[in-house]
Amino acid sequence: MSAPLGPDAPSPLVCTAPPTRFFGYYPGTVAVVTAAADGDRNVMSAGWHAALSAEPPLYGVAVAPERYTYGLLRASGAFAVHFLPFGRADAVAGAGSLSRHEGVDKFAALGLAWRPGTKTPAPILQDAYLAYECRLQNALPTGDHTWFVGEVVALHYRPEAFGERLMQASERVAPAVYYGRATYEALGAGERAVFPPDAFRERA
C-alpha cells in the first residue's frame, strides 16, 4: 500500500476550507432540458446532470425551483434531456440566458425545431444528436436545486453522430464542451488515448 505524503511535503494544490467560491465543475457538457404542460412549454440549459442506472435506465438533472421549467416538469411528470452539437452552442447558451418568465418563446427565439415526444409530452429538439425522453420517477431536494430522476422511456439519436460500439464520432458531429463564462469549445480535434483494462490488471 502506498503511504500518504507528510504534512510538510510540498503540494501544487491550494486549499480553501470552507470554499470561498464553488467552481471547477466545468469543463463539461451542458444538457438542454425541455418540458411541457397545459399547452405551455419551455427549454433550459442544465450544467448538472448524470446517468444514474442502466437497468432500469435512469437519468438525473438538477433544476432550481425558480426556473420556469421546474413547474412544467412537476406538472407533466416528464422531461427530455438533449445534447446539441457545437454548431448549436448558441442555442445551448441562449436557453440558459433567456427566460420564459419574461414571456420569451425560446424555441422561436433560438430557432429550435421540435416535435412532441413519443412517450411523453416533452418536446424533442431536432438539432440534438442525442436525447433522453424521461418519465419522472423521483425528485430529491439538494441544496438550492432539486435533483429530478427520470426513467428513460425513449431514446432519440442521430446515427451519423456515433460510430462503432456506439462511441461518439466527434470528428463527424462535434459535441460542445462548456468552460464557464459563456465559453464553449468543439470536441474532436484533440489527442485521444485508449487504456485497456487488462493493462492495469497486468500491472497490479
From TrEMBL:
Single GO MF annotation: FMN binding
Lineage top rank: taxon: Bacteria
Listed SUPFAM superfamilies: FMN-binding split barrel (SSF50475)
The protein's required cofactors: FMN
Keywords: Flavoprotein
Domain Flavin reductase like: 23-164
Keyword check for Flavoprotein: yes
Membership in a protein family: Belongs to the flavoredoxin family.
The protein's name: Flavin reductase domain protein FMN-binding protein
